[in-house]
Amino acid sequence: MIFGRSERGKPPVEPVTLKILVAGGFGVGKTTLVGAVSEIRPLRTEELLTEAGSPVDDTRGVEGKHTTTVAMDFGRITLREDLVLYLFGTPGQERFWFMWDELSEGALGAVVLADTRRLEDCFAAVDYFERRSIPFVVGVNCFEGAARYPAESVRQALDLDAAVPVVLCDARERESVKEVLIGVVQHSMEYAAGRRRALAT
Amino acid sequence: MSGDGQGSSHWFDDEAGPVVRPYAMTRGRTTSAGQHRLDLIAVVVGEPGAEDPETDPSLAPEHMEIVGLCARTPQSVAEIAAELNLPIGVVRVLIGDLVHAKLVRVTRPVPPAELPDESILRDVINGLRAL
């Protein structure tokens, strides 16, 4: 197979790539959020796992099933020809934590998307990022018809550190999602600056 | 190992456990030798002159597809996996083969331990604002 390159001699641009994670409970709108800002329809990558020894799954009736698939949806935002931001939706099921470890390595930070009707669904994600000192922002997805709570009551309900930003957002709205992502990058910068100060003293 | 894939000798035995079909493409390998696990957003770049790799009989059609994709535009590991509709683990092994064959190279294969420069982060914020 030969691809004619029109600009022979000129090497293709090798972009700097960065990633932000989008976490939260099942059905909270992670893929919707990714789709609202991604320049591509959210793509799906998968990994196969063997299920041998899984202590929680009831495999009665499917004894022949040895593998399962973890899916991650992701989107891409080309900020500049040489600067590309990827958004990765984390797998919803908690037994796939090990995939989170891989995803969060080198990430700029994370969005934990919360639904006030099922706030407990995002507890696991909040715990995860807190324990690993990964900077995150809580985005309260304001679903139509869902009771709206002020950001402060969500902060109290989640027992968040005062430094963690809580923003109300609409995962379907591009402008709203842009603000959330900007909040993540700003928070990461402050977080890194705080750590440097702590190290210096 | 017979190498031609046609021989009667199996390249796996019962110890290997159940065979996972997509990994047949990697001849059962789940990691590539001498390589770190590639980051999902590591960028794979076609090497100059790699557009015509058909001469190498050890390469599978999936290898060629990756070379073709990356010859046009550098691609992230995640995008290649999505494009080929293959599990990430399989794609990592295939990319490892291509790096070994010097048909592609990978920029920043492992995730950085530190946040990028503040100037890059500012560029990200400005870029997001300008969307």
Describe the 3D structure.
The complex is a heterodimer of chains A (201) and B (131). Chain A has one domain: P-loop containing nucleotide triphosphate hydrolases (Rossmann fold), CATH 3.40.50.300. In chain A, helix 1 (30-37) crosses helix 5. In chain A, 30% of the residues lie in helices and 27% in strands. With 201 residues, chain A is of the alpha/beta class. The model of chain A is unreliable at 1-6 and 52-63 (pLDDT under 50). Chain A is globular and about 55 Å long. In chain A, strand 6, helix 4 and strand 7 form a beta-alpha-beta unit. Chain A has a seven-stranded mixed sheet, sandwiched between helices. Chain B has 131 residues and is mainly α. Chain B has one domain (30-130): Arc Repressor Mutant, subunit A, CATH 1.10.10. Chain B contains four helices and three strands; from the N terminus they run βαβααβα. Chain B has helices at residues 61-72, 77-84, 88-100, 118-130; strands spanning 43-46, 75-76, 104-107. In chain B, helix 1 (61-72) crosses helix 3 and helix 2 packs across helix 3. The longest helix of chain B is centred in the C-terminal third of the chain and has 13 residues, at 88-100. Chain B is globular. Classes of the chains: A alpha/beta (201), B mainly alpha (131). Chains A and B meet through strand 1, strand 2, strand 3, strand 4 and helix 5 of A and strand 1, helix 1, helix 2 and helix 4 of B.
Topology record:
The complex is a heterodimer of chains A (201) and B (131).
Chain A: E1 16-24, H1 30-37, E2 43-50, E3 67-80, E4 83-89, H2 97-104, E5 109-114, H3 123-131, E6 136-141, H4 151-158, E7 166-169, H5 174-200
Chain B: E1 43-46, H1 61-72, E2 75-76, H2 77-84, H3 88-100, E3 104-107, H4 118-130
Q: Characteristics of this structure?
A:
heterodimer, A: about 200 residues, alpha/beta, Rossmann fold, seven-stranded mixed sheet, 7 strands, about 25% strand, B: about 130 residues, mainly alpha, three-stranded antiparallel sheet, 3 strands, about 10% strand
